[in-house]
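Section 3.1: Structural characterization of target chains.
Under the original work plan, the team committed to producing a structural model for every single-chain target entering the pipeline before any wet-lab resources were allocated. The record below documents one such target. The sequence was received from the expression subgroup and is listed exactly as submitted; it comprises 494 residues.
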Amino acid sequence: MSRRRKAQQNIPAAVMDEFSNPLFRLGYGSQSPLEATEYRTTRLTGNYALLNSLYGDNWVVQNVVGIIPDDMTKKWFTVTGPATPEQSAALERIQRETGLRESVNEGLRWGRLFGGAAGLIWIDGHDGILDRPLDLKTVYPGSFKGLPIYDRWCGITPADGLVLERGELVPEYYTIYQEDGTVLERVHHSRVIRFTGRKLPYYRRVTEQYWGASEVESLYREVVKYDNTTANMAALTFRANVDTMKVKNLEQLFSIASSEQQRRFWNTMQAQSVMKSNFGTQLVDAESDITNTQYSFSGLSDVNEAMCLSLSGASRIPMTKLFGRSPAGMNATGESDLQNYYDYVDTLRESVLAPILRRLLPVLAMSAWGDAPDDLDITFPPLWTPTAKEVAEIARNKQEAIVGAFQAGLLHADTAQKELKKLADETGLFDSISDEEIAANAGKTYQDVTALRDPLLGLSYEEGPDAEADERAGGAGAAADDRAVPEGRDGHHQ
């Protein structure tokens, strides 16, 4: 071979190879792992077995599914409208006897987990007519027996037909199955309370039989990352300290040594492990050397914190509720996060829970007292509870506002007393105002009340010649009176 050909062979030249990385999709038109990121088209909501397993085995998924329904039903509704105290008490008694709050909580829970659940309005004596629309006139006192819950995979399935309900297309009929799969009943939609999960676009809703999506679907990857991170952190604890023994001619020992030599070596290693302890003595050969390698766990807490924050953001549940601890950082108490979270739950109560309860309220009223007025409604107490200082400040401001309105003539005395008595639970004052006192001040203004307290209010004292003349006349009359009274021997008037 000539020198020229050898020189040409040694010259580096660019070539087009077929390098590819299937994991990161490199070599397939992608320039970076970020560009190669893909999102799966499979839907977790349709995997009943996986969702059921996740809920049973993973406590994070249990918290994601159950915390929000628990907070939505923690402070129950109160009835507003023409309901007497006796009627309200009867309504509350029916709810306790039928376990309505627990049933609604269960429906919300399975709706969040499976993307859909349904509750059957169970009316005593309606067997055989469940396929007919629910008529309130057929709900007699004491006939409401409860709200049994079925998830979308077990017990109830949408049947044929669609109907518009609260501006949303829903199945007109449902089929209830027994445990063996046989058809039990065909139910009209007016007797069914729907609990849907995450809202979906129209075509996806059609695919899901007009149910929603599981709340776990959007945070499944975050759950996987969290579980793997915590598992690897736990595995690292077993490798916190690793002993390294330097053995002379170790490679030759394993390659050409006899089985007897290798057996003695392994026996020596086992003896070292047995004798090693915090208080024991370790024996080594004079030519051997043992070193200890310690792993550092600094930074792992930051990684775990990032995983927790990611899960918290995906579930819209603050770390204080989801993990039972406040986030790390200066002044990170989690109070502001909780307040924002309760505002979010209040929104869910008004948009999700309130329509469900408003459908049930006429049935409850008919079963409680045999009548369902049209102006019955519900209201929720606020979830966020202020501190004692905040409560005192709010109560003081309310009290001052009532007194100011009364002094300005905007309220009568009896109205002001009623409002002050309502604040007794907040202020600890004015609870002793009786109904008789309120009735005695009916229609009285601030001027009327103050006039009764000041006996000189409204009297005038004029200064002038007439007043001076009256004073002189009064003085003269007094003097005349003194002179008209005879004196006794001792100098006293008789």
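The longest strand covers residues 183-188.
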